[in-house]
């Protein structure tokens, strides 16, 4: 024989390799039951016999020659003997099936628990602020308060102020508390723009990150792109009576739902319990007309995008009297528009 075909060998009814392999599979099941019965000595004997049989199979595969009856006679006899001993210990098929089912159920429960922990830890790792990024915010905030150069740049922004309400320019907005992520959006947009001097970015952040965000975009330039930084706490119209979702975000039960993780016995996927949804920055996109009342058209960008082409063509799209245009992901995964939009309004109802 020129070589060993493992598939043919295992399918052959006369193959000693197949017989040996079947014994190994059964012995492995008995090892599990022996350990559960706390019969560790017998489990060790089974494991030792399994290793001996596996060595024979390994040698046959290495030399590419099938095992002979003479080679395997001792191993098959010894394995059969120890399997018989297992049966004498009442490791019969019925007992084995019941115990294996119990073992499978236990493993499934453990797997479910580990999967849930993995999701939670992964979410924490993804959302946690790295030390370097946290320190960046602190350093920028310190720079903002102590650097006269930055304050001077802020005061000398008359030309930029004129651009903020110019509807002949390309206006983009980003609502985020992540300085570097926002910077990537602004920079990638400017780098791929044919006319970066016509781009205006309106950035909205929170009170905590306002000074750092302001400092960063004052220190750095982006090919002539005009950048405005605001904080949503300054929006006087943003109150619970006008914005119902704000009242919901401040609700104790809502906050407990996102932070405790135990209120619905894990029925809700962890990705939908992300505390970031409690931030008004995540919901502010529904109030763009109130945030920028003087602008006729604004393109909203998430802070996790990298722009790879010129976006000026977006501003020439005819929306056919529609209030907004959006990518299709917004159509399927979000089912709570009624909390943000007034469906009795004729433009929305149409």
TrEMBL record:
It holds the Pfam family GAUT_1. GO terms for molecular function: polygalacturonate 4-alpha-galacturonosyltransferase activity. InterPro entries: GAUT, Glyco_trans_8, Nucleotide-diphossugar_trans. Keywords: Cell wall biogenesis/degradation, Glycosyltransferase, Golgi apparatus, Transferase. Its main location: Golgi. Gene3D superfamilies: Spore Coat Polysaccharide Biosynthesis Protein SpsA, Chain A. One of its GO terms (cellular component) is Golgi membrane. Belongs to the glycosyltransferase 8 family. This is Hexosyltransferase. It comes from Malus hybrid cultivar. The gene is UFGT.
